[in-house]
Each structure stands twice: as structure tokens, then as C-alpha cells.
Amino acid sequence: MRRWLAVLVAATTSLVLVALLVPLGLLIRALAQSGAVTQATSEAQSVAAAVGTADLDGLTLTAERITASSGHAVTVFLPGGRTAGSPARRSPGVELASRGQSLTARTSGGGLEVLVAVQGLPGGTAVVRAYLTEADLTRGVREAWLGMLVLGLALIGVGILVADRLALALTRPMTGLARVSHRLAAGDLAARTVPGGPVEVRDVGLALNHLAGRISDLLAEERETAADISHRLRTPLTGLRLETESLSDPEEAARLGGRVDALERAVSSVIIDVRRRSQEQASCDAVAVVAERVRFWSVLAEDQGRPVDLDLPAGPLVVAAGAADLSACVDALLGNVFAHTPEGASFAVRLTPAQGGAVRLAVADAGPGFPAHAQAGDPLDRGRSGAGSTGLGLDIARRTAESSGGSLLLETAPGGGAMVVLLLGGADPAALGAP
Q1: Which part of the chain is the Histidine kinase domain (predicted)?
Q2: Fold match between 2-139 and 280-431?
């Protein structure tokens, strides 16, 4: 914007200066010509005063003295064809002036001759001629034009400088508004702008600060509401646990008790997640979390006759995601396997390092694979499933991957089934165990 304002001011100032300086330049040239003609006329008249009283030698001396002092060639055309002063031929203007009329006329050589008729002489009318060259007519004009040009350029420069200062006063607060907007978009809800600049820009800054504050209030309210709902879920969970403990079959009671524990952990994870500040970044050992969740699901896989292939590295792989988030992600992916493949279909979980410090988690099954329309990305749309489920499983996994700085991909397993690949962002091992 600063550049465009400078260009606009330069163009406007140039137009104004052209409209002003061009007529002024023409006026200066006209005044220079008028001054030269006036001076030459005065010189010719001073010589004309001596025509009736001086002889030929005296007239010649007078004309030569004025020529030397002014630089204008002065010639006296006397009756009878005699001349005194600077040599010159009789031009049509001289012939016209010899009839008794003083005048100014252009010559064929490009100059200007000032002719003064002197009447009352015995032999007729004498003509005093003062000749002005083009240089005489334009003396000082070029210097004046150059001065006006320098002045015009200086005014344009000053105008651009002033416009740049004014533009800076306008663009600086607007740049601050854009910077705060980007920070808010990145999740920094504490970002605020310092209102400044013109009244309109200041109003926008105040409105942006008010909007940021309102967003923070709404998010805080949403977190508290979600936490309140999560707390309310503990009451039916407690009743469910009591019902489980009252079962007569100890094995069935233990199995259902494990499910209730998992559900309670998920509820606790929701409470922690909605209260977590956005700038905090959790981390965990993906090997330990994936191993624990596959071990949990292996019990149900054994009941359904599903072969499980688990491939984990020997050492820890630290990812930029919390243990609760990664557990929920793995549960969502394995839950999809059990929900959308027939009993007895095998599945494989592989965790390997990837480029750039990332971690690759692949969950593949031997089921029917994704439907044809799913290859276009439909399963990744929140709330869309097409298979009778809530459609939130892949969305949970995708958000976990993206929050860690990674991504989620849908591929086809080597056996023709579905395979979900998560690229999880790596984290510093020193941050292991961060909230």
C-alpha cells in the first residue's frame, strides 16, 4: 500500500506541477521576449534622437557605442540609401518603416528587428533598426525553466516523502492487525493489538480485540460445558461398575470391569483434554502406548478368532501427542477393524520410524477394504461413515495426527483390505512425560 500511495501522490503532484509550470514557463518566455523588445526599442529611440542633429560620422559613432554596450546590432538607414552603424540590408520591414511607421518584424534569418521611423528630415524618413537574435529573445529562459524543473522534482520528492510517512502511519496499524489475526488463527487467543492509526483502523483494532476476547470466553464456556457433561457421565459409570461387580461369573465380571475401566479412562481423558491449554504440547512413547492398546484389544481378537500381527521397534519412539490422545486414536482405528470386518479377519499393527523424526503407525486388516467412494476421502469427513457407524473414528485419528504435526492417509493393504497410515510428528525425548 505504501508503494501505491507513493505512486498516486507522485502522479497527482506531477499533473498539478505540469498544469502550473507549463503556462508559467510560457509566460517567462513571453516576458523575456517582451523585455528584450522593450530594451531594443529604447536603444533605437535613443539613436533616433540623434539622427536630426548629428552628421553621418556622429550617427555611426553613436550606433556603434550602443551596439557595443547592449550587444544588439544597431543600424541607421538614412534617406538616399546611406547607412550608419552595423552593416545590414534593407529588409521589407525597413521599407515599410521608411513610410513613417515604427514596427517590429521577424526576419528571414529567424531574428527580430525593432524599427523606429524618424520623420521630418530634408531628404525623407530615416529608419533606426535594432536587431535581436534568438539568443537575445530567450536570454535567461532556459535557466528559469531548469530552475522550475528542479523545483518541480523537489516538490514531487517532498510529496512522495510526506505520502510515505502518512502511508506508514496507516499501514503500520494494519500490519499489526494482520499479525494479530494470524496469531489468533494459530491458536494464540491471548494475542491483542494496540489500536492506532486513523479512526476507522482504530475501530477495527478495537473490534478485533473484542472478537478475540469473545472467542476466548466462548471456548472457556465450551470447555466447562464439556467437562461438566463428562463429570455427569461418572454417575452412570459408577452404577455400571456396581452392576458388573454383582455378576456371578468372575471371568465375565472381570472382562466387563475392564471395559468399564477403559470407558472411565476415556471420560477422564475428555475432562483433561477440554481443560488443557492450547499452547501446551504433550508427548509420549508411542511404542508403549500402542503395545498397551493392542494388548487390550487382543483379548477380544482372541474371542473372535482374529490373528494379530504386531510389529514394534525395540526402543522408544517419542511422538508429539499425549498418551491419552494416542490411546484414543489407536482404539478408534482398532475399533473400526472390529466393527467393519467379519469375525476371523486378521489385522496388523506396525510402528516404524519415518523421515524427519516422524513416526509411522499403520493399521491394516484383511477385510473388504474401503468402498469405492471412500477412496475420494469420504471416511475422513467428520460424521460420515457409510457403514452404519458414527463416522468419528477416522476423524479422531486424523485430528490426533494433525495436532502432532503429521497427517493421515488411506491406503489399500497388501491383501486387499483397508490400511490406515498415521504420520505422527516426533518430539524431543527429553519432553517425554510432558502433560
Answers
A1: 228-428
A2: no
Please state the separation of Cα 265 from the chain's center in Å. Answer: 48
Domain 280-431 class?
alpha beta
Decide if pLDDT at 389 tops 70.
no
| Boundaries of every domain in the chain | 2-139, 142-231, 280-431
pLDDT tens for 342-363 read: 989 999 999 999 988 899 999 9
SS (H, E, C) 109-139: CCCEEEEEEEEEECCEEEEEEEEECHHHHCC
Give the burial string for 164-187 (b: 16+ CB within 10 Å, else e): beebeebbebbebbeebeebbeee
Lookup: cell for 224: 466447562
Residue 247 contacts residue 256 (beta carbons within 8 Å): yes
The C-alpha cell at 325 is: 490422545
**Residues 206/195, Cβ–Cβ less than 8 Å:** yes
What is 2-139's CATH topology? Beta-Lactamase (3.30.450)
75/275 Cα distance (integer angstroms): 108
Cell of 34: 517582451
What's the pTM?
A: 0.46
